[in-house]
UniProtKB/TrEMBL annotation:
Predominant localisation class: membrane
Membrane topology annotation: Peripheral membrane protein
Name this protein carries in UniProt: Peptide/nickel transport system ATP-binding protein
Organism: Virgibacillus chiguensis
Alphabetical list of InterPro entries matching this protein: AAA+_ATPase, ABC_Ni/Peptide_Import, ABC_transporter-like_ATP-bd, ABC_transporter-like_CS, Oligopep_ABC_C, P-loop_NTPase
Keywords from the UniProt entry: ATP-binding, Cell membrane, Membrane, Nucleotide-binding, Transport
Recorded GO MF terms: ATP binding; ATP hydrolysis activity
GO terms of biological process kind: peptide transport
SMART domains reported for this sequence: AAA
Source taxon at top rank: Bacteria
Annotated CDD domains: ABC_NikE_OppD_transporters (cd03257)
Domain annotation ABC transporter: ranges: 7-258
Subcellular location: Cell membrane
GO cellular component: plasma membrane
Length: 342
């Protein structure tokens, strides 16, 4: 990996200003880096801030939302200093994004070919004919058996899996440095999910690009990621390698996520569950955002929010169990799940 990261996000804060002076702190002080050729996964329940983080990187936050602080540097260049015109050139060229449901990202009234041609010609100095040839090449690359025919078809004529392949072809058409995949396979059936994720990894290797993979599926993380960020309440609560997230789980929230997974090795009448639900981003508690749901909550947790601490060279956790020097270990509790997943 390069010493200089492809993407460096520092103290990112994206807030939504709602009626009655409510402020939803959807992303609240997030820091992370992605290196060349690396797959970084962001995991968490719905409402944890995963998708808002990825949309902030693309600068696709609409009112009442606003990025209020932080830096987002692509190869050292802060994207938050760019004009909307400059960002239009960067989106699709240097950074591309694949969304959860391709029908919302593809225009239903234009053919697949014309949409990818438009993307290519917007960023590359190619004739219409050369761009069409490039699209056929891309569609073949992502697994279309009849690329020339698909060029002239509309999104509704393709299955969900094929639409997502078309989105991948569009995303990689300009050889981006970073690809953001926001739940890229959730809307698809299990067999097609694996095909799409395998295809993404194949394209990553072929183009030597980096991937930010947004998901709620820890099985996907185990299979495809290099490093993992666990998000809760708009903040990172644990950050480490994919092996350590299963074998040396630290944060009570991550443990709860792992214990909710079915096991092939032991029979249980009822799967584990994290009590309660993620609070709305405008009603986060005063202290630790997980305090009301945590089985290890202490008085200090309700008073102030812990910092994200380094507890090992490649492992960070936001929890007073470690700040107080307890080193509370949950390694074995996650072990069974880890052995199945890795």
């Amino acid at each position: 990996m390069k010493e200089n990261p492809v993407l460096e996000v520092s103290n990112l804060k994206t807030y939504f200003y709602l009626e009655n002076n409510f402020v939803a702190r959807a992303v609240d002080g997030v820091d992370f880096t992605i290196h060349q050729g690396e797959t970084l996964a962001i995991v968490g329940e719905s409402g944890s801030g995963k998708s808002i983080t990825s949309l902030s990187i693309m600068q696709l936050i609409n009112k009442p939302g606003k990025i209020v602080d932080g830096t987002i540097c692509l190869e050292g260049d802060n994207l938050l200093t760019k004009s909307s015109k400059q960002m239009t050139k960067i989106r699709g060229n240097d950074i591309a994004m694949i969304f959860q449901e391709p029908m919302t990202a593809l225009n239903p009234v234009y053919t697949i070919g014309s949409q990818i041609v438009e993307t290519i010609r917007k960023h590359k100095n190619l004739s219409k004919h050369a761009a069409r040839e490039r699209v056929i090449e891309l569609l073949n690359l992502v697994g279309f058996p009849r690329a020339k025919e698909v060029m002239n078809e509309y999104p509704h004529q393709l299955s969900g899996g094929m639409r997502q392949r078309a989105m991948i072809a569009m995303a990689i058409s300009c050889d981006p440095k970073l690809l953001i995949a926001d739940e890229p396979s959730t809307a698809l059936d299990v067999t097609i999910q694996a095909q799409i994720l395998d295809l993404l990894m194949e394209m990553k290797e072929r183009l030597n690009m980096s991937i930010l993979l947004v998901t709620h599926d820890l099985g996907v993380v185990a299979e495809y990621a290099d490093r993992v960020l666990v998000m809760y309440g708009g903040q990172i609560v644990e950050e480490t390698t994919v092996e350590a997230i299963f074998e040396e789980t630290k944060h009570p929230y991550t443990i709860g996520l792992l214990e909710s997974l079915p096991s092939l090795e032991k029979e249980v009448k009822r799967l584990g569950a994290i009590k309660g639900s993620v609070p709305p981003a405008y009603l986060f508690p005063k202290g630790c955002r997980f305090a009301d749901r945590c089985p290890h909550v202490m008085d200090q947790c309700r008073e102030s929010n812990p910092e994200l601490l380094s507890i090992a060279p490649t492992h960070k956790a936001r929890c007073y169990l470690y700040e107080l020097g307890g080193g509370h270990s949950h390694d074995n509790r996650a072990k069974t799940t880890a052995e199945q997943k890795i």
